[in-house]
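Reply to dn_fold:

You asked what the input looked like. This is it:
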Amino acid sequence: MNSQNILRITLFISVLAFNPAVAQTLSQRTLSALATQKQNGLGAEIAKHLEAKGLEAEAARTIGKSFLQKNHTQTAAMVTNIVHHNIATQEDVVAYLSDEALFRHSADLSDYDTLVRMATQIHQKKLSKEMLTRLQTVAQQNSLIAV
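and this is what came back:
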């Protein structure tokens, strides 16, 4: 039994090592699973952040729900991707999204310009070339999620 497990693990690792397409698919599935867990939580986090800014609880919930009404699963996956690439923390992204929701702006997290604006607003400084490269990668991956 033990040797079978070792063989399975070795086979799994070799498949991942020699086939990047499988690794990317597994990575996307992992992001999708995380997004599903967070989809209900993201609207609630936005509402909680708005409530902390002084909005009434009911108004904050309404704004949070309406902001994520169309693509809450995709938005949650995109937020997970942003956090995964160390662009910003979950809390920072939620704060940015809550500000956008408060002012009734849309936030297309698959758009490079939106991601640059978000990162600049969060970090409050000029972004490095390495950060811009990561943002471009995230924008490309998020556009695949948005399809």
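The chain has a mean pLDDT of 81.
Hope that clears it up.
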